[in-house]
Prior knowledge:
The chain is mostly helical. The protein contains 21 helices and no strands. The protein has helices at residues 2-31, 33-71, 74-90, 96-105, 110-115, 118-121, 126-130, 132-137, 142-151, 156-183, 197-209, 213-234, 236-250, 270-276, 279-286, 295-300, 304-308, 311-317, 322-335, 338-349, 355-383. α20 packs across α21 (355-383). The longest helix is centred in the N-terminal third of the chain and has 39 residues, at 33-71.
Amino acid sequence: MKTQNKKHAYRSGIICLVVIMAIFGGISIKMGISNMLNTIMHTAHDLLLNTVFFLMGVCVISGAISKLFVNFGVVDLLERVLRPLMKPLFNLPGVASLGAVMTFLSDNPVIITLSKDKQFSQYFKKYQYISLTNFGTAFGMGLIVIFYMMGQGYLAEPLIGLLGAICGCIVSTRLMQRFVLKAYPQYKEEDAAVITEEDIEKAEQEKRDDKTIFVRALNSMLDGGRMGVDVGLTIIPGVLVISTIVMVLTFGPNAESGLYTGAAYEGVELLPALAAQADGFFNMVFGLNDPHQLAFPITALGAVGAALGLVPNFAAQGWIDGNAIAVFTAIGMCWSGYLSTHTAMLDTLGFRSLTSKAILAHTIGGLCAALTAHWFYLIYAWII
């Protein structure tokens, strides 16, 4: 048995080395070994400084606000008012709407900050709780995406994209719930969190200790912000590793010189090249009539902020129209860099093994978002 296990370990090791050497060998042939290594390090460093710490700041602020909402009854209010809407659409309790609002105003990981609070997660069954990763991601950076598109001179199209993103969210969330229940049927009845007598006593003690509303509010915000710091630290590995890989496979050489310099965000443009092979499909299904437009959804896989940076150049070159803006808004909101955050988010929730299912469900959800946005735009164009 030991000999067999050793052979299996050797075989796995050889396969792993061959795959890694093939991937990085191919990249280094095009970029050069020195440029490839420098680009990987510089990209990871820039992501750490300008993305991860930004997200950590978002998590701290949103964690403070969400804890404030929890302690002052906003969560209970939302649960009562929005339950009739959330259940039929997303199969989630009404309190989940708070997560949609928070991620719409900030970014994906905020939903994890919120879900770590027992007073929030107690409303969920375990399969619903796990699907919050997909649900929250579909609204990530929504306000920024919509305002950015409006800043390009479009008004109705970003709102049409918002409708598409909501449809994509419904598909992604329900599909993820289906995947979870198929793998773990017992999660249908298990509660995501149970409020114990100790938790109740602790909450009551906090209320007794907080003699004024000001003190209660201050303590709530500080506690929530502290939880946001923990979440911000947790997402670092997923963002750095996965985003760096996506960026290297998406972007090309230096835009000014056309050469590789080892700077951050250079790459081999493999993903756009693969997508160009399906240009006819994207044109027929999503109305994307220029192959350059495919760079937006591909880039949005890793970071929607980077994808938004492509839009002004597209506009200057005449590569986009109203339909493209609607589709970009829908797929940009729904995907919003899920390849770089899903792993870290599910790892934080304690369900890393379900990452592949979450990614599959969200890939389908994003495509449905783009498709429905295209249909909505055609109806809008026909009416006007």
